[in-house]
Design a protein that fits this description.
By secondary structure, the protein is α/β, with parallel strands linked by helices. It has one domain: BirA Bifunctional Protein, domain 2, CATH 3.30.930. The chain contains six helices and eleven strands. The longest helix is centred in the middle third of the chain and has 17 residues. It is globular, with a radius of gyration of 16 Å. The chain starts with 5 loop residues before the first strand and ends in an 11-residue tail after the last helix.
Length: about 220
Amino acid sequence: MSETFRVTDLGTLEYLKAWDVQHEVHAGVARRELPPTLLLVEHPAVLTLGRKAKEGENIIVPRDFLSEQGIAVHAIERGGDVTYHGPGQLVGYPIFPVGRRVRDFLRLLEEALVRTLSRYGLEATGSPGYAGVWVGDEKVAAIGVAIQKHVAFHGFALNVSTNLEHFSYIVPCGIQDRGVTSLQKLLGREINVQEVKAFVEEDFRQTFQDYDFSIPEL
């Protein structure tokens, strides 16, 4: 049985407040009280540490320096290593039933973002070995999820007009031999996050149109 999902735009919201919203929505979806939901948001500057993160290795500047720059640091339950969120980056949290289809779900997340980037004439690819979406050897979108009670949360971060200098404070996702880019850098012109947000919503609906949103029994 397939059902539609709703999209909720949180605007700009501090990371921990959005994290609370994720948990509330996730609980509602897992209890079948809320429909599957894609949350869209921009965050003030923040580093998040996934389950594989080793702060001493992949955050390469002192905590005091990060505080001076107004960059918060939070350890969270998603997979993956350290990543950056900040203004000009479109973050999406697809709180969708997944069950045991984790790999298929990740490939669909990549496919949706590849569709969006293709609208701008960019040839992007997913990379199962390096979760995310890439243009050449540069990552334009990071992906990291957690699954609890058969339902996913966390998700993707698409660099639209992000301050890429902030990525120099970390080894993004623990990958040392590849770079990070943004839609704005790739196109050489200003890009509006609201414009990209509308495309992402449309491309998620197309990519997930045949997806089974039913939740397996626990």
